[in-house]
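Data deposition worksheet. Section B asks for the primary sequence of the deposited chain exactly as it was used as input, without tags or linkers unless they were present during the calculation. Section C holds the resulting structure in token form. Section D is free text for depositor observations; keep each observation to a single sentence. Incomplete worksheets are returned to the depositor.
Section A, Depositor: J.P.
Section B:
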Amino acid sequence: MELLYYETALPAGFPSPALDYMEERIDLSRELIRHPLSTFIVDPKAEDTVVSKGVINLPAVLAELKRQNFSGMLSIEHESNWYHNLPDVIFTRNYYDSLVQKLQ
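Section C:
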């Protein structure tokens, strides 16, 4: 008795609902950018900086966390100046403590 053998895969079982969308292309700009005229991409060529010297408004962030009665953990990460970062870590800790003290 001879049987047919197919070297290509044959679909079996329940077809995937994703197959209906395989041929559609998605424009990520249209999906993700809500305000195209005010959206831009830049490469600032920046490195990490010590807390309080960058663009993040940490006092406002902490004030908002207080307003929301946040009681979880907060992590501040600093990875530049890898081999001599203790002064930066001490500065960051002191800065954070002074901001928290102002909120109380």
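Section D:
The longest helix spans residues 86-103.
The chain has one domain: 17-103.
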